[in-house]
Amino acid sequence: MNRLSLTTSLTALLAAGLVASGCAASTGGTSEPAPAVAAEGGTLSSSVPLDHRRLPSAQGEWLISYTSADAGGKPITVSGTVSVPKSPPPQAGWPVISWAHGTTGTADVCAPSADRPGGPAHSYVGLVDQTLDRWVAAGYVVVQTDYEGLGTPGEHPYLNGRSAANAVTDIVRAARQVDPGVGSDWFAVGHSQGGHAALFTAAADQQAAGLSLRGAVSIAPGGFQTSQTTTYFQQRTGEQGVRAALPFLPTMLIGAAAVDPGIVPEQLLGDDVRPVLDAARTTCQDGIREAAPTVRAERVFREGADLGRLTAYLKSQEPEGLALRVPTLVLQGTTDVLVSKPGTDQLVKSLCERSPAIGYAVYDGADHRQVLAASQPAAQRFTEDLLANRQPANACSRP
Questions:
Q1: Which residues of 15-138 form beta strands (DSSP E)?
Q2: Under a CB-based contact definition with an 8 Å cutoff, are residues 158 and 103 in contact?
Q3: β-strand pairing of 182-191 with 141-145
Q4: Cα(387)–Cα(92) distance, integer angstroms
Q5: What is the pLDDT of residues 66-81, one digit of tens each?
Q6: 360 strand-pairing partners
Q7: Considering 38, 65, 155, 287, which has the largest number of Cβ atoms within 10 A of its Cβ?
Q8: Where are the domains of the chain?
Q9: For the residues 151-159, what does the mean pLDDT come to?
Q10: Which CATH class is domain 9-224+320-387?
Q11: Beta strand pairing status for 182-191 and 212-219?
Q12: Residues with Cβ < 8 Å from 247, sequence gap 6 or more?
């Protein structure tokens, strides 16, 4: 299985945090450790057929649980869904799109697999499903991981590249145990937080056994320069710019603490913003936003709080230092105020310094969500070119 070697700022954080506003799964967040899982990563643990098709072009859909590994390599259980096409599988099996979703939150109620019409995240998840249905109609299997800690035991390590890449990879192996028509060729495709996950998957230092990762598509990727999150608040005074950003800070802190227990959100945040932290442990982004108080920037963090450990962790999860090992396509909208085009321009430039093949396409007038539908035809051309062994366009200039 893939295991990674880890080798503006605020707008990237916001993009990773806003795109989904919550989803119903079970109940509140869980803090108990995940039970030991002895099976190899990608082992199917359970499979339940779904009566209601989220993707109308699918012949069948299943809610599954499968084994994976957390950021430290410890075995865990992750949930997700598998959707297979109506068309008969080709000789090599259907190719697979492993979808990495945008932020829903860190509480168990935010697992996207439990989305339903009228649910707290349906405005986003329903929009995503429209795009994913186009992949199924084109003959691809679509698998959607919930990520570690969403709907399963343990905390969700928000924006941890290693954990997300493991979940994105291992669900493909699990899907091959659901339907024999699922092939070994696959692509990591994600949006916002999931765009970050797709980049970390593309940087995996080894291929998963029995699979062939052909490429990755990163749409409006989050995570760029997230280590500057702390300075965003520290360099401001008063209330300007705080209320919009505040709902995403506890999500980031809880995610960091899930990996590094030395990061204790309660010791870093001021008393005025504790309601936001409390909300983040039980609800999703809309509920967190509603709980966000009006607070001055200088009161966001506790006076004298040592933010060095948090900043160092966030730095380790920034995607700009990755060396991508498979062809990768980055897609960006010009009117995206959550992941800015200038920020993504910088990210692509940085990735080009270490990676051999990166495509980059920009969509005039598309915002953070509109870029999903606008870019899908280009993303599909990219995957089809790679499946046909055609070289995709390369945006990286070489001397």
A1: 44-49, 58-69, 75-85, 94-100
A2: yes
A3: unpaired
A4: 11
A5: 999 999 999 999 999 9
A6: 330
A7: 155
A8: 9-224+320-387, 226-315
A9: 94
A10: alpha beta
A11: parallel
A12: 17, 276, 285, 288, 289, 291, 292
